[in-house]
Amino acid sequence: MSNDVRRPKQYEDMLFELCQSDKKIFLSYQDALVFAACLGHVKSARKSFDKTSEPVGIHIFKGEFDEAVFQCIGLCEMKDPAIMSDDNMDKRIRLFEEYAAGGLEIIKSRVYEGPEDWDSALVGLIEIGRA
């Protein structure tokens, strides 16, 4: 497995709109994926996928916060500190990707398909207990 973070192809247009369009709310795909992975994890929404868009290089996720997200998701999921070793980087990336896909599904249903406007729907996703 490469050390890149895959983006689910089915959300390619939505991610573009969230990160690149005049309506963007995230500064980068990295930010959107981190938010989505955290949301997916909090809501126990883990979704595997095969079709991918252009991946985001793992080096983009090297900040302390991003690395902590990968580590925490891995540790919470596996319940084994060994997941934090360099040997298990591929497993941590895969878990992150799957929770990001689950979070993107939640964003799609709440923000794009829900009755609220974008701002209200996204604030609702951030607030505990409302999503």
What are its keywords?
two-stranded antiparallel ribbon; 2 strands; 131 residues; mainly alpha
**Order of the strands making up the biggest sheet:** 1-2
Strand content: 5-15%
Q: How would you classify the helix and strand content by structural class? A: mainly alpha
The 3D shape can be described as globular
Per DSSP E runs of 2 or more residues, the count of β-strands stands at 2
- Provide the succession of SSEs: EHHEHHH
**Stretches where pLDDT falls below 50 for ≥5 residues?**
none
Mean pLDDT equals: 91
Distance between the ends: 33 Å
The helix content, as a percent range, equals: 40-55%
Tally of helical segments: 5
Radius of gyration: 14 Å
Biggest sheet architecture = 2 strands, antiparallel
Care to describe what's here?
A two-stranded antiparallel sheet has the order 1-2. The model has no long low-confidence stretch (mean pLDDT 91). The chain is built from five helices and two strands, in the order βααβααα. Helix 3 crosses helix 4 (89-112) and helix 4 (89-112) crosses helix 5 (118-126). The protein is mainly alpha-helical and 131 residues long. Helix content is 53%, strand content 8%. The protein has helices at 12-19, 29-42, 64-78, 89-112, 118-126, and strands spanning 4-8, 52-57.
Lay out the secondary structure.
Layout: E1 4-8, H1 12-19, H2 29-42, E2 52-57, H3 64-78, H4 89-112, H5 118-126
Antiparallel strand pairs: 1-2
